[in-house]
Amino acid sequence: MQTLHKIWLPLVLLVSLHTVAKGQPTHYSVGGTAGMVIATNGSPFDGRSPTGGIDVAALWSHKDTSVFWHRFWDEPMIGVRANYAHIWNSVAGDRLGLAWTLNGPLLGHLSWTYSVGLSMYTKPYSVTHDTTNSFIGSPLNCLIDLGFMYELPLSERLTATLTAKLVHSSNGYLYKPNHGLNYLQAELGLRYGPARRHYRHRPSFFSDSTFHGYGRPFLLVAPGAVMSRYDDIDDIIYYPTYLLQLGYTRQVHPCFAIGGALDLSYNFSHRRMAPTDELPVYPAAFGFFDTQWGPLTLRLGLAHYLAYYPLNWEQYYERVAVYYRIGNAGHHLVGAGMKVHYDHIDFIEWSYIYEF
């Protein structure tokens, strides 16, 4: 539990404080949420557990027309979001969340939202106090949501919003038990602040005539640590994990990149279940797509193991990562990513990237 406090919490607070330091927020929002828990493998929920709560946010609009990514993303808003969700029939209690968030127009009145941060459950697993919850093992977990928002201006400074989103919460086996919780949520809200100047189609993909595509080889190193899902539930034993990537990124637009890599990872907790597993690495082919907002990069990728391993029942996995570029044109990026199988995060990657 202390590991999550020491690593994930300072990272979220650092990004949030960096956002707040930009000056007074230009928008404030409040909304009511409703939804349900999606059943996953090992879940005590039947998929019909309803949720309800409240969500508030402070947002900063980026609309300097001299900056290309401000123009291309059509005045994106970056901010800090806090929320509360009551979960009926929940052995894990209610959920509190704090996250860095981004909102950007897509087409017409439709925009999209993305948040990454922390969630806290009020009734985590405790061998001495709560033997009914063998599902959520730590008060603090990661929180990720991705959704679409419809904006309807009511006045010059008031906008009604309707949002549908998918929410995930788990701790990446920094503490166990950890199966993860997924939610479908809808939100009806109001945002106070200057209405967007216009609702229009995206700028032309090649609207920056001075841009010429280029490629960059890169090296990514990402150590981590997990508790094994194969140990007894109350054993406090950590196992190292690692990820090494050798890859190539092609910048196809000032705000988009694609790429691929040889993905070399290993989770040493697997040796708890298979002591004869002498493999030092699980090789995989990894492809990804980047979206970029100045120094921030969101990477979404899909990988396939190049050989069959019995402990990796799913031969495909996804990766979601957020990186921060040090310096406007620097070669160094730092951030966090997650190796994700269907119903859980295999491990959290604390990443350093060097681009050649």
| End-to-end separation | 37 Å
Largest β-sheet summary: 8 strands, antiparallel, barrel
Q: Write down the secondary-structure element order.
A: HEEHEEEEEEEEEHEEEEE
Structural class: mainly beta
Give the % helix: under 10%
Q: How many DSSP-defined strands?
A: 16
Strand order of the largest sheet: 1-2-3-4-5-6-7-8
Name the poorly predicted regions.
1-6
Measured by DSSP, the beta-strand proportion falls in: over 45%
**What is the residue-mean pLDDT, rounded to a whole number?**
81
Per DSSP, the total helix count is 3
Using the alpha-carbon principal axes, give the shape. flat
What do you see in this structure?
By secondary structure, this protein is mainly β. It has three helices and 16 strands. The strands form two sheets. The chain has an eight-stranded antiparallel β-barrel. An eight-stranded antiparallel β-barrel has the order 9-10-11-12-13-14-15-16. Strand 4 and strand 5 form a beta hairpin. The N terminus is likely disordered.
